[in-house]
Amino acid sequence: MTSYRQPGTVLTDHTFTVPLDHAKPDGEQIQVFAREVVAAGKASAGLPWLVFFQGGPGFGSPRPAGREAWLDRALDDYRVLLLDQRGTDSSSPVNRRTLSQAGLGSAQAQADYIALFRADSIVADAELIRQEVTGGQPWSILGQSFGGFCAVCYLSQAPEGLREAFITGGLPGLDVTADDVYRATYPKVARRNAEHYERYPMDVQRAKDIARRLAAGDVRLPNGAPLTVQTFQTFGQMLGASTGSHSLHYLLEEPFAGGDLSDDFLHRVGSQVSFSAAPLYALVHEACYGQGAPTNWAAQRVRAEFPEFDAALDSDAPLLFTGEMIYPWMFENDPVLRPLAEAGEILAQREWPRLYDPERLRANEVPAAAAVYFEDMYVPVEFSVPTARTIRGLRPWVTNEYEHDGLRVSNGQVLDRLIAMVRGNV
After folding, report:
1. Which listed residue (91, 92, 121, 145) is catalytic?
2. Residue 242 catalytic?
3. Are the C-beta atoms of residues 80 and 88 closer than 8 Å to each other?
4. Measuring CA to CA, which of 111, 238, 399, 413 is 20 to 30 A from 336?
5. Does the global pTM surpass 0.90?
6. What domains are defined for the chain?
7. Among the options 180, 376, 405, 416, which is catalytic?
8. What does the alpha-carbon distance between residue 224 and residue 270 come to, in Å, rounded to a whole number?
9. How far apart are CA 260 and CA 75, in angstroms?
10. Which residues pair with 168 in a beta bridge?
11. Is residue 238 within 8 Å of 227, Cβ to Cβ?
């Protein structure tokens, strides 16, 4: 373990060894990294543990700089463990190079390996880590977005390990399919487009001008990937964040230089659309909705039911951006995904086991509270509310005060309210 200080905090880095496949505990092992954070004045205090499950899937935990955002509130009461979920950042990362180095040359071997990186395996990792960190005592968890999916899986799979659970923007539908999710989210994304263009009407023409240039062909990003109209449309994922519409506007503000798309624009676009930081996100995103059946590229199939997202550049209709969707063509375009395209196809056809146990959730005894964002573009409220009603003892806070990133932008207010709800103070 390595310890060091930042303003107001003491941090300690931990690495744990866990089975790749928890059904084979004596088989291949992988490493899971976690960063302990404690308030500087409380480093020797016997504080309870709070484990943070990051959104994603496929992204590592935050890299903090002192007491910032929600962490400031958490450190008043807890010793926080920022968990890099398996396959992300410092936890045996999954990408084209590591899979090759592991000797997983065939697409089937790669897919079988990647299939072990869903929420159920993340929860099993956490349970082994808990035994080592707390000596077997229950701990508290905080799940944001996909981290909330992990929290519900934890309540289904190992509630005896939990002292309390906080969930923000991450109550999944318990029996909802990927098709259901996209049938709910495409209309929400369309509304966000309308709101964006109402706020920034000049962007209607700017987006069409960019799309027409891309439709003419042979525009390349700095990494060599083609920039197509359908890739450009994926910028709509930004619209679900609190400042996303403004960020999209500024991205569209000055796209041309000397009669063509500028180097600056292409550089900023490249960082926005590349999966180099989180290829696992593309590989298992739809799998987090897999409940007993293959997902079979649900976002692509369901999109056909919403023709307004077709880029009709010769019409007066504004170009519609899409949202948090993964499409098969992404594996053809992005250089970091291209070597994993066959594995991605196999995963899309995989029959996934269920992640949640409704009967166990109905008998839940773990104190829990969840922030459900009424306008959430990524996790539909119409699925979250029934789940909140199913989990015995969970107190939901349905609000339109925040967007999906409310935990991060609220300066601790969202977490503070959830803590008060669990303690019966609200």
Report:
1. 145
2. no
3. no
4. 238
5. yes
6. 2-174+356-422 (3.40.50.1820), 178-348 (no CATH)
7. 376
8. 10
9. 50
10. 144, 371
11. no
